[in-house]
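Appendix B: a complete holo record

For completeness, this appendix reproduces one full record from the ligand-bound portion of the collection. The bound molecule is zinc ion. The inputs are the chain sequence and the ligand SMILES; the output is the full three-dimensional arrangement of the complex, encoded as structure tokens. No fields have been trimmed.
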Amino acid sequence: MLDIIIYGGKIVDGSGNPWYKADIGIEKGKIVEIGNLRGECADKIIDAQSQIISPGFIDMHSHADLTIPFNPYMDSAIMQGITTTVVGNCGISLAPLNNEKINMMGEYLSQFLPNSLKVEFKWNKFSEYLKWEKNNGVTCNVAHLVGHGTVRIAVMGMDARDPTESELIEMRKLVEESMGSGAFGISTGLIYPPSIYSRTEELIEMAKIVSKYGGIYSSHIRGEGKTLIDAVKEAIKVGEEAHVPVQISHHKAAGRRYWGKTVETLSLMEEARERGVDVTCDVYPYTAGMTSLITLLPPWAHEGGLGRLLERLKSSSDRGKIRDDMVKGLGDWESFVKDYGWENIFVSSVKTEKNRCFEGKNLREICELMRASDEYTTLFDLILEEEGCATMIVFQMSEEDVIRVISNHLSMISTDSWPVRKEGLLAFGKPHPRFYGTHPRIFRKYVREEKKLSLEDAVRKMTSFPAQKLGLKDRGMIKEGFWADIVVFDINKIYDKATYDNPHQYPEGISYVIVNGEIVVENGDLKQILAGKVLSKK
Ligand SMILES: [Zn+2]
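The structure of the chain with zinc ion bound, as generated:
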């Protein structure tokens, strides 16, 4: 007697091979039989005639850790078929912490989440954090990276300088403890303070620890526009010198002037691979990005933390200097405003009711609505009113680059999102549609409509390829002995409903999602079951 039998579907097994027809038997969380199972009994029978059976999707780049403390059911992730998520990205992880710097860490997170969502830190060490998450429960499997920004805050706060010898030793220790507790690697977010203040040598030192544990170096690189080429080279250099596999996060060419540069970046990756560096990337299928609104300000303005940033915005001399740097640019720092233009920067969430009407509007429109003298004043006043707690969506890419990266054999698919839900506390703002629609959009737009990818290759980029990068040996494929992480969907109906104007919409066409042998989505409905595991690299 099996727990579940899935009858008659077309199995796309994750390897990239063409689909085949077989039944799947699941018992005690694992796939135990694949073949003709007619006549066998099970507690639950799923009829998957004419549907695709795929391994559950592995989201190679997410920020699910930001909202798991408020909603372990992870609605928008599970509903798009994600069964394993990689968190702790862009330099931001929820551990390790230093009690003396805990406020700074809270402020660091507040740039993304509204006031109502303040993480209560019930841990210090990475191991304590993983233990907390395990006890709390999660719906999808979670693989953790340790964030370089978080480590730097714990040791050096938001100081804009190099670490001293003893601080470097302390940072190495924290990375060591995190890797020893089961982290899958380290992440950097080199456009965000405090990671932005670090030199390549510091990153190599951290990555050397990761190398001892067989982890990866995952990087939101130092620039995605003007300095894109150098930034890709820096990421490769870290991998080459520290002997770690490199993952370039949400790869793109941002800013009209730099469109087309992915031709060069992808060949840089190929050349590095010829030298023996395992470099790959991930990508989300949209031409807009999303991050915190304060990312528009130059690096020096963030020194000392959010409190200092807000003080500077109140001082007319600092305000003038911030404005000058944003207009002219500052060294290698990429000024989003200068590169993309106000009309392409949309406010996606704020925390005050007063400014709620600005969600979904660009800064030029908001300037007019506020009757402000210009957009700089609008932005600075808005940041002050929101105390730095606001996010933005920035239209910055060309469709040609997006397609080039998606269809390149070195890319995996990622959402770069935190799970939200249609109602309640997590339904705030107008998040990027990738939060709800990334994986269905790949199938609807790039497989079915535009034929840029085969079904099998799209599935490979969401399953076995990220599993290989992470070193997950029993997930990411439909194979006997593997964990039963499975998605059942109709390739003719799967459809991402989320749009920029109306993002809070679940996709259609996915009938079942199974995590570790437990059905978490049935006939398109989310069942609140904490079926996930906190994964460990060890
Ligand atoms: Zn990022």
